Amino acid sequence: MQNWLPSSKNYYDFSKLSQVKLTTQLLSLVRDCLIGLVHNSIKHPLPMLSNLTQLLALEDFILLASGTESIENDTFKTLTTLKTLELWKNKLRRVPSALPANLEVLKLNDNSICALHGSDFEGLSNLKVLELKNNLISSLSPSMLSSLVSLQSLLVDGNNIESVTGPLSLPNLKYMSMEKNKLHLISGNVFTSLQNLQFLSFSGNFLTKIPINLPKSLLSLKMERNQLKVVRFRDMRHLENLSHLYLSENLLSSIDGAQLLTNLTTLEASQNRLQMLPPRLPSRLQKLDCSSNFIQRVTAPEFQDLRDLKHLFLDNNVVSLFEAGALQKCSQLSNLALEQNLLLSIPLRLPKTLARLDLKGNAIQDMAERELRDLKQLQVLNLRNNKISALDLKALEGLPRLRHLYLDGNPWNCTCSLLRAREVLKAKGTDVKGGQCAAPAERQGESWMSSKKILKQCEHHLEQNERGKETKKKPKPEDSSSIRPSMDDDDDDYEID
């Protein structure tokens, strides 16, 4: 039964049809009925399904984007083996009635359902997944969901929900998402009975504070895109299992007290109003994202206990001071993002474990050996859009694992020394995104990574230099006054005339 159904998922998804149990004699009848559903836009009830209820032992029924506006009462009632019902992207205005008791997954996303009633889910004691994303639901209360004692996942993103009252009696709920609604306040008793909840998202609402009395079982809390001005960590200190906290795109001017969340491993606070890094962060933190704020300084005290930190994002701030060795205690740091700041030089004594260093869009003028000599694990270095005009050969030779180097957007002085640096990079197998020459004037706009003219000019200078060495007169042994140290060296720069 794999070949006769349309493969497009824009209409009717029967990818799990292999689970449908049919007799050989009824195969052709079922085929005709299902193909009819696929190719027709259904604006009325589905009467043909009632004719099939004696014929099918369906476990999965998925109807996508068919234009269905209503479903006849009790249509699915006798499908006693049905476990999954998905009616996505239709025009349903209510939850289908009298759903079979064995149902485990119900997905009604992208419809026009305005309200939920307790009777909608009566008898669904086996339901584990309920998705109602992108409908028109305006409220959520305990009476609507009281029958769903086995529910593990509840998704109601993209509705018009303004309030949630409790307690929600869903003892097995583990995942709850209410993103992109119109929530201003969450009642304090909503979570009283949600003692197994692990993942909770209220992103994209109008909340001014984090809800209180969150369940101790919580592992992840998403609060991005709200209107938080302050986070009271003392109201969250009981969340001893919380490992991921997302606070990006709020109105926070400071974050203090996060050390109370002792098992926190991820803290994201980008696009806020932070003027300084959060002090006293949890020692188990592995990822800190404070990008797109107004942070000016990076000093050692903020990082002295963060020995497990692996990813640090400080891009799009106004960092002008980066204390030498500020991150030395971060002995596992592999990814450091400092793009779009005000740095004049590459920070000194960065952790030896760095694999990626992003410094795009600063005012760095030099790439010196002392700044990079310890970064033996570095694989990606981004120095785009700075003010670098030359490369230090010794600095490049001290980066044995460098695989990607981004150098475009700098005012390169296209000397022969720069060309030698190019050869070193090519020999290392480094993928280089080069840039254009700013000097000398006659080479402006040319790419120093690909210009054959510059390479030919440098080869000519090299040949002249070698010939000059060969024709030099050797001083007479007895004439010590004529001995002078040679000023010629293969590492000298030669300006391109």
From TrEMBL:
Acidic residues: bias regions: 488-497
InterPro entries: Leu-rich_rpt, Leu-rich_rpt_typical-subtyp, LRR_dom_sf, SLRP
SMART domains, alphabetized: LRR_SD22, LRR_TYP
Record region (Disordered): 431-450, 459-497
Domain of life: Eukaryota
Record field: compositional bias (Basic and acidic residues): 459-469
Protein name: Nephrocan
Organism expressing this protein natively: Rattus norvegicus (Rat)
Lineage of producing organism: Eukaryota, Metazoa, Chordata, Craniata, Vertebrata
